[in-house]
Amino acid sequence: MARLIDGKQLSAQVLVEVATEVQQLKAEHGITPALAVVLVGDDPASQVYVRNKVLRAEEAGIRSIEHRLEADTDQQTLNAVVDQLNKDPEVHGILVQLPLPKQLDEAQIIAAINPAKDVDGFHPLSVGALASGQPSLVPCTPLGCMIMLQQIHNDLSGKHAVVIGRSNIVGKPMAALLLQANCTVTTVHSHTQNIEALCRQADIVVAAVGRPELVKADWIKTGATVIDVGINAVEVDGRRKLVGDVDFASVEPVAEAITPVPGGVGPMTIACLMKNTLTAARAQLASVASKDIESNPEPTAAVG
């Protein structure tokens, strides 16, 4: 049987590490990292997700700020909230919970967030920095997947990874991170031919398409590592059940390691949001310090 990659346990470790660094930041600089979450409307899944984010922030010692707006909020109002948070020096991370109601332009609001506070890693500048290998805030789910993979493989260099899905939130940034780790990366999607054959070549399979139990045992090479990003609600015997994009029961005996659903990637996504908020706070502190030095240079000693 495959080794289970326990996202709950690993996310708890990440949160402990973040909490320790948050305390150091407070002690050394008097700064408490703050995460502002903007929720528009009353989507039940979004509300649960936001509540979990607030709880994890408390565990990590991060200050949580919530802005809850009505479902009929217009673009100008939402833009004004984001602008206010951009200008607030005590807010280090901004997250606008997606999806937004239909009358709002998601691309516009993502682009309106200060890239330095873009803890979701969705801003075009964040995307460009990741693609070109520059330091940046990385989307939380792919970052969590990389931490999980590093628990299984000391060195990812040279491994063949297949990413199923090409979304801006998971598939594309996941492929970029794997390339940075010197993997050979194949991205497959709905127009790819012979997906099963490509997946069978992979040492690592990351499934992120939102199709229940798409990936079967005959897609997976013996000994591969399988990261299941999908979380889908299905009805089994009249009951609601959460399943991934991977047919866990058939794939587990074949794989070397696999993430469960639930309890796999999901907890890591929120833990990495806290990690990104800490990273953003440290970067903003360094930026302020750099500007202070530039505006107040050390006096030059007189010669002669």
Automatic annotation (TrEMBL):
Reactions that this protein is recorded to catalyse: (6R)-5,10-methylene-5,6,7,8-tetrahydrofolate + NADP(+) = (6R)-5,10-methenyltetrahydrofolate + NADPH; (6R)-5,10-methenyltetrahydrofolate + H2O = (6R)-10-formyltetrahydrofolate + H(+)
E.C. code: 1.5.1.5, 3.5.4.9
Domain Tetrahydrofolate dehydrogenase/cyclohydrolase NAD(P)-binding: 139-284
Glycosyltransferase recorded as keyword: no
Cellular component per GO, a single term: cytosol
Annotated positions binding NADP(+): G165, R166, S167, I231
Gene Ontology molecular function: methenyltetrahydrofolate cyclohydrolase activity; methylenetetrahydrofolate dehydrogenase (NADP+) activity
Pathway where this protein functions: One-carbon metabolism; tetrahydrofolate interconversion
Keyword match Nucleotidyltransferase: no
Record keywords: Amino-acid biosynthesis, Histidine biosynthesis, Hydrolase, Methionine biosynthesis, Multifunctional enzyme, NADP, One-carbon metabolism, Oxidoreductase, Purine biosynthesis
Any one GO BP annotation for this protein: L-histidine biosynthetic process
Ranges of residues in domain Tetrahydrofolate dehydrogenase/cyclohydrolase catalytic: 5-120
Physiological role: Catalyzes the oxidation of 5,10-methylenetetrahydrofolate to 5,10-methenyltetrahydrofolate and then the hydrolysis of 5,10-methenyltetrahydrofolate to 10-formyltetrahydrofolate.
Subunit structure comment from the entry: Homodimer.
Similarity remark: Belongs to the tetrahydrofolate dehydrogenase/cyclohydrolase family.
Protein name according to UniProt: Bifunctional protein FolD
Native species: Oceanospirillum sediminis
Upper lineage: Bacteria, Pseudomonadati, Pseudomonadota, Gammaproteobacteria, Oceanospirillales
Designated gene of the protein: folD
